[in-house]
């Protein structure tokens, strides 16, 4: 059952950490079912990220199953990484049904500006009212400007801070919370802007970490859809904290991947309260 995590009245940094811990506890106790229509590269890490956090992943993308399955989920995550004309109808059908059922859904516009087909598909999905849009700076700039050629594969040619104005514009135009991943993860609702300062650079050397944090955002929003702005920032910070703790034991990207999952599973209140670092940024 959905619940609203009421924001704490504690000082800003402590309030964010307390809220993040409350949301993670809610996921662990409720185990929300999260449907993921995602790319072939990310399925494994995305599913393991959700399981480690306490959620229940379902990697269902067949358009024939959408009418029966999607209404029973708590949230939907749509990732266009390995987009094809055969998958787009399922993505759109699931998004439409999620909205009709009052369930939040999250869009990951991977390499949105890489081709005309991909950009048009992402814009069509944005029209279906995602609760959250999470991408790197180049992807968010491409969506905001509806332009082609600003991305290089799934990597970003911009820093997250470069996309603040584009993110605000996209949030205002779409009604979605917009998150920009980078050295500092930016989250905005078009007015408020916060930065999640957790994570380590080596996370960028692991395929599908961005995809996985989008799925984690879906789980956080599933347990507190009323406060999607706070839920999104908390998910980004929690994932970053797990990366920081995993890095303490890792020897490289492969072992960081393993320890990232283990650290997310083992996060306790002391870890979250001492490590979550979310701050307000200039508007």
Automatic annotation (TrEMBL):
GO MF entries: ATP binding; hydroxyethylthiazole kinase activity; magnesium ion binding
EC identifiers of the protein: 2.7.1.50
InterPro entries according to UniProt? Hyethyz_kinase, Ribokinase-like
- Pfam families named among the record's database cross-references: HK (PF02110)
- SUPFAM superfamilies the UniProt entry points to: Ribokinase-like
Q: Which UniProt keywords apply?
A: ATP-binding, Kinase, Magnesium, Metal-binding, Nucleotide-binding, Thiamine biosynthesis, Transferase
Q: What cofactors does this protein use?
A: Mg(2+)
Q: What is its EC class? A: transferase
Question: What does it catalyze?
Answer: 5-(2-hydroxyethyl)-4-methylthiazole + ATP = 4-methyl-5-(2-phosphooxyethyl)-thiazole + ADP + H(+)
Pathway(s) annotated for this protein in UniProt = Cofactor biosynthesis; thiamine diphosphate biosynthesis; 4-methyl-5-(2-phosphoethyl)-thiazole from 5-(2-hydroxyethyl)-4-methylthiazole: step 1/1
**TM spans, by residue?**
none
Record keywords: Hydrolase included?
A: no
Q: Name one GO biological process term.
A: thiamine diphosphate biosynthetic process
- Organism domain of life: Eukaryota
The UniProt family comment states: Belongs to the Thz kinase family.
HAMAP family named among the record's database cross-references? Thz_kinase
Explain the purpose of this protein: Thiazole kinase involved in thiamine salvage pathway.
According to UniProt, the name of this protein is Hydroxyethylthiazole kinase
* Upper classification of the organism: Eukaryota, Viridiplantae, Streptophyta, Embryophyta, Tracheophyta
